[in-house]
Amino acid sequence: MSDVDFDFEFDDEADDEAAEPVEDDGRARSFPAFGPGRRIGKKFADTWWGNAWIESMEHTALDPEQLKKGRRYAFAGQVGSITVSPGRISAPVHDGDQYTPHDTVVRIGTLSDAEWDRLLDKVAAKAGHIAALLDRDMPHDLVQTADDAGVRLLPGYGDLDPACDCPSWDHPCRHAAALSYQASWLLDRDPFVLLLMRGRAEPELIEELRARNTGRAAAAEEEDAVGDRAEEAYAAVPAELPGPPPPVRGEPMALTPLLAAHDAPGLDAEALGVLAADAASRARHLLTATAAEMLAPEPDAWQDAVRLASRMPRSRAARRLGEASGRADDLPRAIKAWEYAGDAGLDVVDAVFGPPKELVSRATEALREAAGIGGATPEVKNWRNRWTVGRDVQVRYGRDGRWYPFRRRSGEWWPAGPPGPEPADALLDLAKD
User: Which residues touch 312 (CB under 8 Å, ≥6 apart)?
Assistant: First the structure.
């Protein structure tokens, strides 16, 4: 309903003067009445958040005629001084020829203490949000930050509850509609009006944000002090420290014969040897791992099964891992992918996703050019992140940004080599085989 044309003009100077509050006790603010004026344009409010307020009210309106009358009342200055307080806005609204105005209220839910805590923590973490509010602006990303904190700042459909002592049964009546329209002008000029409706006044919010920033600064200073002490402690450590143990050469399952010699009922020496060797390998990796590798997510059950089976791919333990995973037929190809590129290689075997169009176009052209070197150009077909060249060669794009070669064997696509940085590299590596 907000796309109705208005044939009015509006006096900006008079409106700016009316937007200045005449009373501010911290918990309620009163604004003088807007004088009569005229405005031209399709949008009633000037800001996106002011119009969002209007849309919330108009979306649930039962009678468009009441909205038209409300707009006329708002432009004609038939709304008295507006009082804004937590959970409500109110004003006397008269019908022009009526001496006694109607008491009109629009209610909106306030945020809980927990919601305010989450919101203020998010806002305080971004200096740009605080600066925008102080500049009487409400950028889209501030509202998105509130959404990320599970807090709704702007009213949604049905969040505004109008009430009036007039005899009308409409929702909203023309008086409540006029009040809502003029409220959008207040919101245009000061987003803190909306925050007051939601339960917190500007002085209170500024103080809470200042306290949070002070706490963050103190925490940062303490962190710096801890860092300094850590550096001092590190400086005291001898320069010569033993490095990680050398890699194990030869059979990685050296424990298996020892365990088999002391076989006990129910003990699978081969499986236990696989687990022991894997634990030793992972421990060694942790000694030299980077921070990113340390924080990487834990592998899932299938990745674990493939990693363990790759240690003894032809063993009874590997066969049991395949059966337990429910993917025994896929295990040989998965092991081959793991040998070439670990987790990333294994992911490419199953991964199907749509790369950006620019990448698809560039890769297709590069593969056609590479495939045509030295003879007739075979057909290059693309499907999602896979390019099939001719009948038996395929290049796949991995989620890690690398390109993986595959060959068709017995009707199935098998990993055929390590990944390359460009699609043509993977194809040319296949041509060398």
Answer: 253, 270, 274, 318
